[in-house]
Amino acid sequence: MLQGIFQYMLLDGLISYLFFSSFFAFLVLLPGFPVFLNDKKKRLQNARKREMNRQFLEGIQMTAASLAAGYSIENAVKEAWKELSRIYPKDSFIIREFQILVHQTEMNRSMEQLFLDLGNRSGVEDIQSFGEVFLTARRTGGDLLSVIRNTCSCIRQKQETLMEIETCLAGKVMEQNIMSAVPLLILGYIRLTSPEFLDGMYGNVTGAAVMTICLIVYGAAYLWGRSIVNIEV
């Protein structure tokens, strides 16, 4: 939260200085903070969900290996939890969740309901889908090992596809970031080297209107560019 406040204040101050050279503009732009914060939270949540998905994939792969070795699903999850504990810290998503699974099964709760609860807590589509498929397979007497392996295959394919897309777009993302910074760098350079060149744009209604239009166009171009390189799988 504090980091987000600092970042927005810095951005607000930079825009107010470069486009309007006015403290009043800084105050006018302050209501935009909730929008900035929500966008930042959304990006952090997406990154967190992807990491949760990756950890879950590793967890059910280990569970499948234990199932193939002849363990029951409850003991397979317990063995997977032990193996995961050697890889991830105690406060990681997969360790916390598998620990819940182990402890709840010891209290005679059904594994299918626990996986459903895990999917709901995570908010990750693939984990939720796994819980639903696992529930159906368990109640209809399906092959749990095949279900888990098929789920692993689907999640892995989605992750590999996403990684390929990100690799292909990495250069474009960098270009978009650079191009987004160029207008601000140009304005900053002019303000530092030839401030009188922009004097006519500050302190009057006409200049403020022109700079407002420029800022709107700049913001729209930035959002458009970001939407192009933001592809979900």
From TrEMBL:
It comes from Candidatus Choladousia intestinavium. This is Type II secretion system F family protein. The chain crosses the membrane at residues 14-36, 201-224. It comes from the Bacteria. The lineage of its organism: Bacteria, Bacillati, Bacillota, Clostridia, Lachnospirales. Keywords: Membrane, Transmembrane, Transmembrane helix.
